Amino acid sequence: PGLGSPFAARFPTRAAMANFCEEEEMMCEEGQSEGSMWSRREATRMRQINIGKARPEYRRYVAEVPRDARTPSQPATPDHRARVSKRQFDRDLSAWRRQL
User: Distance between CA atoms of 79 and 91, rounded to whole angstroms?
Assistant: First the structure.
Protein backbone atom coordinates (compact mmCIF):
# COMPACT_ATOMS: atom_id res chain seq x y z
CA PRO A 1 0.00 0.00 0.00
CA GLY A 2 1.14 3.50 -0.81
CA LEU A 3 1.47 6.37 1.61
CA GLY A 4 -1.93 7.73 0.61
CA SER A 5 -3.77 4.52 1.49
CA PRO A 6 -6.02 4.21 4.57
CA PHE A 7 -3.73 1.40 5.78
CA ALA A 8 -0.74 3.78 5.96
CA ALA A 9 -2.76 6.36 7.89
CA ARG A 10 -3.61 3.88 10.66
CA PHE A 11 -0.13 2.52 11.30
CA PRO A 12 2.96 4.54 12.21
CA THR A 13 6.06 4.41 10.04
CA ARG A 14 9.28 2.84 11.27
CA ALA A 15 10.78 6.30 11.61
CA ALA A 16 7.85 7.45 13.76
CA MET A 17 8.17 4.35 15.98
CA ALA A 18 11.93 4.88 16.35
CA ASN A 19 11.31 8.51 17.31
CA PHE A 20 8.70 7.43 19.88
CA CYS A 21 11.11 4.90 21.41
CA GLU A 22 13.86 7.52 21.64
CA GLU A 23 11.49 9.98 23.34
CA GLU A 24 10.40 7.32 25.83
CA GLU A 25 14.01 6.48 26.68
CA MET A 26 14.77 10.16 27.20
CA MET A 27 11.79 10.51 29.53
CA CYS A 28 13.06 7.60 31.60
CA GLU A 29 16.58 9.06 31.70
CA GLU A 30 15.40 12.58 32.53
CA GLY A 31 12.74 11.92 35.12
CA GLN A 32 13.07 8.45 36.50
CA SER A 33 14.35 4.99 35.80
CA GLU A 34 12.17 2.31 34.30
CA GLY A 35 12.18 0.49 37.64
CA SER A 36 10.78 3.46 39.52
CA MET A 37 8.19 3.97 36.78
CA TRP A 38 7.00 0.39 37.29
CA SER A 39 7.04 0.71 41.08
CA ARG A 40 4.81 3.80 40.81
CA ARG A 41 2.52 1.94 38.42
CA GLU A 42 2.35 -1.05 40.80
CA ALA A 43 1.38 1.21 43.70
CA THR A 44 -1.39 2.79 41.62
CA ARG A 45 -2.66 -0.64 40.57
CA MET A 46 -2.60 -1.90 44.16
CA ARG A 47 -4.65 1.12 45.20
CA GLN A 48 -7.23 0.28 42.50
CA ILE A 49 -7.36 -3.35 43.66
CA ASN A 50 -7.82 -2.27 47.28
CA ILE A 51 -10.76 -0.09 46.23
CA GLY A 52 -12.31 -3.18 44.62
CA LYS A 53 -11.66 -5.27 47.72
CA ALA A 54 -13.42 -2.70 49.89
CA ARG A 55 -16.65 -3.08 47.90
CA PRO A 56 -19.56 -5.15 49.25
CA GLU A 57 -19.46 -7.51 46.23
CA TYR A 58 -15.91 -8.57 47.06
CA ARG A 59 -16.66 -8.98 50.76
CA ARG A 60 -19.67 -11.15 49.96
CA TYR A 61 -17.59 -13.26 47.53
CA VAL A 62 -14.81 -13.79 50.09
CA ALA A 63 -17.35 -14.74 52.76
CA GLU A 64 -19.16 -17.24 50.51
CA VAL A 65 -16.21 -18.85 48.70
CA PRO A 66 -13.18 -19.88 50.79
CA ARG A 67 -9.82 -19.41 49.04
CA ASP A 68 -9.01 -23.15 48.96
CA ALA A 69 -12.39 -23.93 47.35
CA ARG A 70 -11.99 -21.52 44.42
CA THR A 71 -11.68 -22.80 40.87
CA PRO A 72 -9.80 -21.19 37.95
CA SER A 73 -13.12 -20.11 36.41
CA GLN A 74 -13.96 -17.97 39.45
CA PRO A 75 -12.79 -14.35 39.78
CA ALA A 76 -9.08 -13.93 40.46
CA THR A 77 -7.55 -10.66 41.61
CA PRO A 78 -5.43 -9.13 38.83
CA ASP A 79 -1.68 -9.17 39.43
CA HIS A 80 -0.57 -5.62 40.22
CA ARG A 81 3.03 -6.55 39.38
CA ALA A 82 2.26 -7.82 35.86
CA ARG A 83 4.16 -5.79 33.28
CA VAL A 84 1.19 -5.16 31.03
CA SER A 85 -0.09 -1.95 29.53
CA LYS A 86 -2.39 0.33 31.48
CA ARG A 87 -5.20 -0.50 29.08
CA GLN A 88 -4.73 -4.27 29.56
CA PHE A 89 -4.62 -3.92 33.34
CA ASP A 90 -7.77 -1.79 33.29
CA ARG A 91 -9.51 -4.48 31.20
CA ASP A 92 -8.44 -7.18 33.68
CA LEU A 93 -9.55 -5.07 36.64
CA SER A 94 -12.93 -4.39 35.04
CA ALA A 95 -13.49 -8.06 34.23
CA TRP A 96 -12.59 -9.02 37.82
CA ARG A 97 -15.01 -6.51 39.30
CA ARG A 98 -17.81 -7.59 36.94
CA GLN A 99 -17.28 -11.26 37.85
CA LEU A 100 -17.63 -10.50 41.54
Answer: 12
